[in-house]
Design brief:
single chain; 358 residues; alpha+beta; six-stranded mixed β-sheet; 19 strands
């Protein structure tokens, strides 16, 4: 009877033999759980490749590191240190890059030693797909209309710029880690990252577009965040609803300008005062249109038509606010000259004349 060869067991055995042969682990360090589903590396019996008593490193491949007294850190490392898990490339030095790090809070950092968010990336991100942000109404509470005005955005300056990462000096590192931690792994890692930033600045020629976070914070503080070192970041996706509302307000102004351009020759279009325009056409034989403007806070408004002796001929309640118009049907009136008046909240705003001919 032929026995089935378990390829996984063979690979695990080969890996075990190789790890023991390289001196990274020994038989006591590598333990297989009784159900054979988990391999456990015991830190107490693990051969450490670092001077840090709380760091454990697995090295894969043979690197070309010549700067660590002949010690070879391999091509790739898996490092367990300070309750975090790190995948790193040690060449050309043992501190040349953080690679990917998962800290004790499950924050993941790419090329960042201390990720500040659930996902923290130092570099560009390429996406061939869709970035989805949950926005279901059922996942929201305290929903209120957004009050965004063009005048607020007028104080915000759009800029073009090049990236300028923070470059720390030796004194900055000593202040951060202390003078007695020059050989500390984290210190060396941060110094290595600092050097990478210098090289990035020299090669980076990309022109970017954005806002100054300090300026945006004065207008929409909810869209600006400050990290533990005092640097500000912007929620650019959160700017989309603000811009949409501002565009809608601007469109209202454009529509108002179009509606009133034949009658408003100077001054601002939107005003806090009600306004009555001359009817058009005038004289008229069938219908004529009367334009008017009412502020949003208007409670009651009406347009009234009088004959020349002051008798009220017709009354029209005005329900629309902002720029609007009212069409007068000439068939309900006799030929002649009339006065029409705009009354807002009990006050007479203006009176004009129109002529009906038949």
């Amino acid at each position: 009877m032929k026995k089935t060869i378990n390829l996984r067991k063979i690979l695990l055995l080969v890996a075990f033999i190789e790890l023991c042969a390289t001196g990274i682990v020994n038989a006591q360090a590598l333990k297989v759980r009784s159900d054979r589903k988990i391999i456990h590396i015991d830190p107490e019996n693990l051969s450490m490749s670092s001077n840090n008593s709380d760091m454990y490193r697995l090295a894969f491949g043979k690197g070309n590191d010549t700067q660590n007294a002949g010690r070879n850190y391999g091509l790739w490392n898996i490092v367990v240190w300070q309750k975090g898990l790190q995948f790193t490339i040690p060449f050309p030095t043992s501190y040349s890059g953080t690679g990917v790090r998962i800290d004790s809070l499950s924050n993941v950092g790419f090329n960042i030693f201390s990720p500040k968010e659930r996902l923290d990336v130092n570099g560009n991100i390429a996406i061939n797909g869709i970035v989805k942000v949950s926005s279901d109404k059922r996942l929201k509470k305290d929903i209120l209309p957004l009050d965004a005005h063009v005048s607020q955005l007028a104080n915000l300056n759009s800029i073009r710029y090049k990236s300028n990462p923070v470059i720390k000096s030796k004194d900055d590192f000593i202040k951060q880690f202390g003078s007695d931690t020059i050989d500390n792994y984290q210190y060396q890692m941060e110094v290595s990252m600092n050097e990478s930033k210098k090289q990035f600045i020299e090669k980076d020629t990309v022109i970017r577009y954005g806002f100054i976070a300090q300026e945006l914070r004065d207008i929409y503080p909810e869209l600006v965040f400050e990290d533990s070192e005092g640097y500000l970041s912007v929620d650019y996706i959160g700017m989309i609803p603000v811009l949409v509302e501002a565009i809608k307000e601007q469109q209202k102004q454009i529509d108002a300008l179009i509606n009133g351009k034949d009658f408003e020759k100077s001054g601002t279009v939107l005003t806090s005062e009600a306004k009555l325009y001359q009817n058009n056409p005038n004289p008229f034989t069938a219908n004529t249109e009367i334009k008017y403007y009412l502020p949003n806070e208007t409670k009651n408004a009406s347009l009234r038509i009088y004959n020349l002796v002051g008798e009220e001929i017709a009354k029209f309640d005005l329900l629309d606010r902002g720029y609007a118009n009212l069409t007068i049907n000439g068939s309900v009136l006799k030929a002649g000259m009339y006065n029409y008046a705009l009354l807002v909240d009990g006050q007479l705003i203006d009176t004009k004349q129109m002529v009906l001919t038949k």
